[in-house]
Amino acid sequence: MDDLNEFSYLWDGSEPGWTLAKGSYTRWTIAVAFTSAGATVREVRALRLAVPELRSQTASAVFSAVRGVRSIVVADSVGNTACRELMQALERNGLRATATAKVTHCGLPISKDQIALIIEDDDLALAVAERMEKEGVPVHQVEED
Asked: Is 93 helix (H, G, I), strand (E, B) or coil?
């Protein structure tokens, strides 16, 4: 992989001081389920109370958006805290909701000056991180909420 060799300075010692910040993060998609007939008036009211983005919309606009659908995604790609808070609000308002997680593992090269190297090609970024780790570059774990 020629592209990988462009980054050899990260592990071959020609530019010392690089480390690898390694971690994972979780993003959640939250959906609310309705009966086969779609949302009821009570469920539309509950949606508007529980979902901040729907509060500014009229009840008729929300009702039109959910008419005849069995479920609606109310949040996409939210973090752990936002997921927990929204799920609690939905449950508090009597709605049936599910949260689906997408976990992404990542490694980010960090220079001795604490500057991150962003590699925009996700596959190449993963390959670079794996090679850095294989070659013994110091790794530190990063936690995310």
From this structure: coil
